[in-house]
């Protein structure tokens, strides 16, 4: 086998964000760009010789081209075998499942998740470790470091592999095995939930479901699991064929980008009782009842509270975990169950140690991410099946289940306001002004409310002791309300600021007050403290979820 060594030079800006490196396709397709980053990953591995790599992505534009390059480089890096999803497809949770099931050394997932795809839009890449989870910050920092000093990358020359045919071929000394991207994952989910009961629900004439795959990766997974294995009527899955540009949309399951689903769920003529959607790479979920959207922060709390109804979790939860900006609804469930609730920085990579150590069973993020110890990624279809399992067991509507939950635990009214594509310099100025005020804020009355504490969230991982600073500015009020400010680490254009708003309402008589109305005082406080209009030049958020 002959390895070709290609001279290269460092390319600026290859710093992984919340979930891998995400850039425009035009950036990724520059000569050496992908190669430099992949070589920098491989240069930080130790002991991969002869071992298995898992490779696949969400099917977006450039996915197939990148796979051919990565295969040649993986062969040169000494991997013994690479498992590739047919047609280059592997949803993020399926990749995690495949890594774990086959005892792989690690995996490379090609995705920019909820970001749009196509020649003028986004591409992304991230490395997952042998536990199936995203590499930690120590690793991604080392990769970035390597990209700044790299001088060569290596590959094994050869013809392109036919990604559309199952079976095994060879590049140099490495086997390339094209696998069914759905089978291992579907089998895993089937082992967790009460499929018989869910099937009976899905076949009832008075229960109608819609799953919107948003032209992204979950189409084939949802069709296999919901329509084939569980017998939901054909057509339950809509927009079910993965397209390289996701049909021109944002594959982001929120009320703005999944407006079609929300409208369908509010249309009495369609008679839909349960709606769900997932994102580009299949790790997010949106849950909608008849004319009722479930807030992702409530969703994780409801899943935790109903653990006893789901076979895989019925024996009990070891603990739960949520990202810091996620509402404290799940904390209340944990307190009632007498189990720990961990608060981590944003991004699934921070849950990995807790899951591996058996400290947390369920994890959730406000950004429509929910998952468990069955894999090491958040998992969109898993959340949908968990909800179906609850609905089948309780025989109540989605809205009824959530309202009942609020009556029992109180309601953590919650919303996130996103300001997308702000000029980076303006966003930085806004945050530095905000950070400067933090020491003086406690005790002050702002927009009529007393600030109790204000800080920049920092986290020490309770398992490995690693430290992460500057993970979001928090302003906490006396009554437990919070406003959190963060800059997104997944965008590719300018800066996206996220403002997270939360207020706890115990009184059931107040539970139906519209969310934005209930949060109005906090929205005013956020504006007052951060001077959003003046500093960002925006007078309203682009997306409210
Ligand atoms: C966003 C979400 C975060 C999520 C991350 C990756 O990050 O807020 O909760 O883990 O996306 O999800 P940020 O840095 O833009 O706020 V995915 O589905 O894009 O892999
Ligand atoms: Co995603």
UniProtKB/TrEMBL annotation:
Give the signal peptide range. none
InterPro entries for the chain: A-D-PHexomutase_a/b/a-I, A-D-PHexomutase_a/b/a-I/II/III, A-D-PHexomutase_a/b/a-II, A-D-PHexomutase_a/b/a-III, A-D-PHexomutase_C_sf, A-D-PHexomutase_CS, Alpha-D-phosphohexomutase_SF, PGM
Q: What is this protein called?
A: phosphoglucomutase (alpha-D-glucose-1,6-bisphosphate-dependent)
Extract the Pfam families matched here: PGM1_C_vert_fung, PGM_PMM_I, PGM_PMM_II, PGM_PMM_III
Instruction: Tell me its family.
Output: Belongs to the phosphohexose mutase family.
What reactions does this protein catalyze?
A: alpha-D-glucose 1-phosphate = alpha-D-glucose 6-phosphate
Q: What is its EC number?
A: 5.4.2.2
Needs which cofactor?
Mg(2+)
| UniProt KW keywords | Isomerase, Magnesium, Metal-binding, Phosphoprotein
Residue span(s) of domain Alpha-D-phosphohexomutase alpha/beta/alpha: 14-151, 184-288, 297-409
**Any one annotated GO CC term:** cytosol
Q: Which GO terms describe its biological process?
A: carbohydrate metabolic process
Tell me the enzyme class: isomerase
Query: From the Swiss-Prot or TrEMBL record, what is one GO molecular function term?
Result: phosphoglucomutase activity
């Amino acid at each position: 086998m002959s390895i070709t060594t290609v001279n290269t030079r460092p390319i600026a800006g290859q710093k992984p964000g919340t979930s891998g490196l995400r850039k425009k396709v035009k950036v990724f397709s520059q000569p050496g760009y992908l190669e430099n980053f992949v070589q920098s990953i491989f240069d930080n591995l130790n002991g991969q010789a002869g071992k298995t790599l898992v490779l696949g992505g969400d099917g977006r534009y450039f996915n197939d081209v990148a796979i051919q390059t990565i295969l040649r480089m993986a062969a040169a890096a000494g991997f013994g075998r690479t498992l590739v999803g047919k047609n280059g497809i592997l949803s993020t949770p399926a990749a995690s499942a495949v890594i774990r099931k086959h005892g792989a050394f690690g995996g490379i997932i090609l995705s920019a998740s909820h970001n749009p795809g196509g020649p003028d839009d986004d591409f992304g890449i991230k490395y997952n470790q042998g536990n199936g989870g995203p590499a930690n910050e120590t690793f991604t920092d080392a990769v970035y470091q390597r990209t700044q000093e790299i001088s060569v990358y290596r590959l094994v020359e050869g013809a392109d592999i036919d990604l559309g045919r199952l079976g095994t071929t060879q590049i140099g000394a490495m086997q390339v095995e094209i696998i069914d991207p759905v089978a291992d994952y579907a089998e895993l989910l089937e082992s967790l939930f009460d499929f018989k009961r869910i099937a009976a629900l899905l076949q009832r004439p008075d229960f109608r479901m819609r799953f919107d795959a948003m032209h992204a990766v979950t189409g084939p997974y949802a069709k296999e699991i919901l329509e084939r294995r569980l017998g939901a009527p054909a057509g339950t899955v809509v927009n079910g064929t993965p397209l390289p540009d996701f049909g021109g949309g944002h594959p982001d399951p929120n009320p703005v980008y999944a407006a079609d689903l929300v409208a369908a769920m509010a249309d009495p003529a369609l008679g839909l009782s349960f709606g769900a959607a997932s994102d580009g790479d299949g790790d997010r979920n949106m849950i909608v009842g008849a004319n009722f959207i479930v807030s992702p922060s409530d969703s994780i709390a409801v899943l935790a509270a109903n653990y006893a109804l789901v076979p895989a979790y019925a024996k009990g939860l070891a603990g739960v975990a949520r990202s810091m900006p996620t509402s404290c609804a799940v904390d209340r469930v944990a307190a009632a169950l007498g189990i720990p609730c961990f608060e981590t920085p944003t991004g699934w990579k921070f849950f990995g140690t807790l899951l591996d150590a058996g400290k947390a069973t369920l994890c959730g993020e406000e950004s429509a991410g929910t998952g468990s110890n069955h894999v090491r990624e958040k998992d969109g279809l898993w959340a949908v099946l968990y909800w179906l399992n609850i609905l089948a067991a309780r025989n109540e509507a989605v809205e009824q289940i959530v309202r009942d939950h609020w009556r029992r635990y109180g309601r953590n009214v919650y919303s996130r306001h996103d300001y997308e594509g702000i000029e980076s310099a303006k966003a930085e100025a806004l945050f530095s002004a905000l950070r400067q005020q933090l020491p003086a804020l406690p005790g002050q009355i702002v927009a009529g409310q007393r600030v109790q504490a204000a800080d920049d969230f920092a986290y020490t991982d309770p398992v490995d002791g690693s430290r992460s600073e500057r993970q979001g500015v928090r302003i906490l009020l006396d009554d437990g309300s919070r406003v959190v400010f963060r800059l997104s680490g997944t965008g590719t254009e300018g800066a996206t600021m996220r403002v997270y708003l939360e207020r706890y309402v115990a009184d059931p008589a107040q539970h139906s007050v519209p969310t934005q109305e209930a949060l109005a005082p906090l929205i005013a406080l956020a504006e007052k403290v951060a001077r959003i209009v003046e500093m960002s030049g925006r007078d309203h958020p682009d997306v409210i979820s």
